[in-house]
């Protein structure tokens, strides 16, 4: 049978049946008592009627039967007392019977409750045993599954260990092969570098001799021209040092890329031909940019084909410092220089704004000074110093490019 919230238990049904039996028994006893009382009242009524009749007769014979009436009254009184005593005795017996019956019912009720409690305890014990048995079975299954999983993981780890060992062996073999190939390649690059260095050096020597011959032909020029040539000679000495450094850097890059065709020494020599040591004015610097740098897209973003964010036209030192005064450390811009054939890189540090001259008079871009790296593009120089400090002392790193501040860019004069 399906369980229902109103369904009664067996104990409840048994208890209700016992109560119903007790109720019927009590009702039966009460009915018997009531019948007895009715019969007793009838008997008493009948006696009263007889007594009235007798009294009536006695009144007629009062004189004659006075003595007998008094005796009979006495007897009647005694009989009444006896009857009352008998009724009291019966009442007490009935109360005793009722008390015994109630005691019996109470005893039976307690016995039923005890049986019910025992049955409930047996039920709870049975459920507890069943639950323990189920928990035991579930625990055994979990232990079995766990052991199975651990065994699978162990086999998987052994398999992974074997695979890792095999990969390490393969990697070691590959490293050994690469070391051997690198050794052979380095030896080849060293020979190629020596040959290329000698070739560049020979070309430089030839150009130097040509410059010397040209200078000898012009010795009869006036003293002013001689002084100009003297200054040019000093610049040339500095250029030769830069050329040698540039040649070494170029050969190094060529060795890495294995491309020896992208660099032409004559480009480096022709880069400064027909120009003075520095621009005479702002317009000459702008013309130089239009003629020499603009065709190379110097300072341009090759994707948008527009000047990079950090690229600016001619600006004075005061304008730049005023622009960067409240900027974060590492904010920078590149502006066209009016002092040299090149640019000025301005970067904000903790205390002030620093300015670095970028020499573009050679076939590359480098800061002024000894042992400077020559970059093929202006963008390469800027990107290089977003990772590498400009100077060891200042530790300047380019972080935030400073763009234009007005709707009309200051680099429009260059375009």
**How many beta-strand segments?**
8
Q: Cα-atom Rg, whole angstroms?
A: 65 Å
Largest sheet: 6 strands, mixed
Q: Level of helix content?
A: 55-70%
Oligomer: single chain
Measured by DSSP, the beta-strand proportion falls in: 5-15%
Mass-distribution shape:
rod-shaped
**What structural category characterises the helix and strand content?**
alpha/beta
What is the string of SSEs from the N terminus onward? Answer: HHHHHEEEHEEEEHE
CA(first)-CA(last) distance: 98 Å
Low confidence ranges:
258-273
The helix tally amounts to 7
Overall pLDDT level: 81
List its traits:
7 helices, two-stranded antiparallel sheet, 415 residues, 8 strands
Structural summary, described in words:
The model is unreliable at 258-273 (pLDDT under 50). Helix 1 (10-60) runs antiparallel to helix 2 (62-217) and helix 2 (62-217) crosses helix 3. The protein has helices at residues 10-60, 62-217, 223-257, 265-270, 282-293, 317-324, 378-384; strands at residues 300-301, 306-307, 311-312, 331-336, 342-348, 353-359, 366-367, 400-401. 66% of the residues lie in helices and 7% in strands. Strands 3, 4, 5, 6, 7 and 8 form a 6-stranded mixed sheet that branches. It has a two-stranded antiparallel sheet with strand order 1-2. A hairpin with a 6-residue loop joins strand 6 (353-359) and strand 7. The radius of gyration is 65 Å and the shape is rod-shaped. The protein is built from 7 helices and 8 strands; from the N terminus they run H-H-H-H-H-E-E-E-H-E-E-E-E-H-E. It has 415 residues and is of the alpha/beta class.
